[in-house]
Amino acid sequence: PRSIWISRHGESMFNVTGQIGGDANLSPRGQRYAEELPRLVRNSAGDTPLTVWTSTLKRTAQTAHHLPYEKLSWKALDELDSGVCDGLTYAEIEQRYPSDFAARDADKYNYRYLGGESYRDVVIRLEPIIMELERSENILIVTHQAVLRCIYAYFMGSSQEQSPWMEVPLHTLIRLTPRAYKTEEERMYADV
Ligand code: F6P
């Protein structure tokens, strides 16, 4: 049966400083993940030829750089747009936009950043991606935390509203194999 592999980009400089959004480069540790990823994928996929989908942001292209497969970048895979909060840390958001910070905490799925997106918005913009995935063979998606949470929830049969709480950590390759009644999952961790 066919599988879908998903991975977040390697640690970025914004991950190091705790800033959200942006278009930062990989950190040295994230760079090591990018170098390790071809081995991790090969251990799981063997000789199966994959197609790699990334977002349009640098950190996903940098993470996919060493993968010896055909690559395609999708704007629809860009990270949840955090609008006016782009580039801030959670502490800065709480300080500058306290009522927004509380509103997000109260309803993370529906909360839309000022000038940006909600998880619900991301689920909607991912519809074409999901459709394309459903009719494709052996795709490896390298993208962002919020986006992968939505894709993961979809394949695991979790409700869309649960998307913001899916566990999709850095430096982990996840293999999803849809079966008749449920999707099988395997996680591979890179020690970088
Ligand atoms: O911090 C990394 C990141 O991908 C941010 O760019 C993004 O805003 C955030 O995670 C999404 O996670 P959460 O919805 O939990 O804030």
Automatic annotation (TrEMBL):
This is fructose-2,6-bisphosphate 2-phosphatase. Substrate binds at R8, H9, G10, E11, S12, M13, F14, N15, R59. The chain holds residues 269 to 460 of 497 of the full protein. It comes from the Eukaryota. In the C-terminal section; belongs to the phosphoglycerate mutase family.
